[in-house]
Amino acid sequence: MAATQSVGARTAGAADSPTPSTGDEGERGTGPLRGLSPHAVGMLALLLTVAIWAAFALSARALSASTLLPADAALLRFGVPLVVLAPALWRRRRRLAAVRFGPAAKIVCGAGVPFFLAAMYGGSLTSAAFVGAIVPGMVPLFVSALMVAGGKSAPRGTQAAGLALIVAGVVALVWRYTAALDADVLLGAGTLLVASGLWALYTVGLREVDLDPIGSIGLLCLPSFTVIALLSLTGVLPTGLARAEGADIALFLVVQGLGVGLCAGLLYAFAIRRLGPERSSVVGSLSPVAVVLLAVPLLDESPTLPVVVGVPLITLGVALANGRRRFRTKVSADA
After folding, report:
1. What Cα–Cα distance (Å) separates residue 140 from each residue in 127, 171, 230, 280?
2. CB 273 within 8 A of CB 9
3. Quick one: which of 33, 30, 11, 83 has its CA closest to 274?
4. CA angle, 328 as apex, 280 and 152 as ends, to 5°?
5. CA pair distance 231, 228, nearest whole angstrom
């Protein structure tokens, strides 16, 4: 079944969703969100996602100093949501099985094991500021590229200027390390760019599936957990979960498993349904600033000159790139 949807339009899978209906722009929230417009509820979900993504960027950097290995963090990231949502996912098994391969591949590759390992590895070679700035900050550029590749018009005016500022901000971040030929930082930054491109793929893929947020999390976590478990069991990726300190396990369980894996997944998928992929990527304009500020007291990172110059450029660029864009997109969904 194919349907043309505008931002905030009702999705085909809304009947399965435990969240308030994503109806017309004039429809108001229910329960504690009564009186709020769908746009306001979507923006609230984005603001909460900002806080969780900031914690993700900080944990990506903190992983290198913990007793956990990347595979351990991935097992917690994808395993905890499956345990918590198991009954709900079982009720959605037929809808999950009906998802087309193309959109499913975008989601699983875009936010699954490839993205997670790229973000963790890139963070271990750079800083929390790099993770928080490059990964979400570059998403609007990659999303726009995907939209253009799919037949949409190229960004113009303030949108194009915003994308140019994002590129300038990333260049400002890495320029000093390029001149000094710091191979580790450059490799880390390049890996983070790959992670950002993958996340943009995930952002677009969410819009193309006939699933509510819980179903989207299941579609992402089940194959991702299976892959990481197989890689760990076969020794391809080493694991030290059995020997890790309890405090490290608890931290990553809360931040990665419950925070990023469950809460952010629900909130971000919900925001995609309400606001669309391009507008939802505006979350990147706030996330870099939050990460830089939090990294000072939590990780003892002092903002360097490239960070002081690059992060504001990326923040302004994301705001301009997303501030006025409205679009309609054709969604193919299996019913």
Report:
1. 21, 16, 33, 9
2. no
3. 11
4. 90
5. 5
* pLDDT of res. 100: 93
CA 94 to chain centre: 26
Output phi, psi for 135, to 5 deg.
-65, -60
pLDDT in tens, 58-117: 888 888 888 999 999 999 999 999 999 999 999 999 999 999 999 999 999 999 999 999
CA dihedral 16, 22, 28, 31 (to 10 degrees): 30
Query: Rounded CA gap, 260 and 267, in Å?
Result: 10
8 A C-beta contact, residue 213 and residue 20: no
Coil, strand, or helix at residue 76? helix
Q: In 180-212, where does DSSP find H-type helix?
A: 183-207
Comparing CA positions, the residue from 333, 22, 321 lying closest to residue 157 is 321
Cα separation, 190 vs 1, whole angstroms: 39
Pairwise CA distance, residues 117 & 111, whole Å? 10
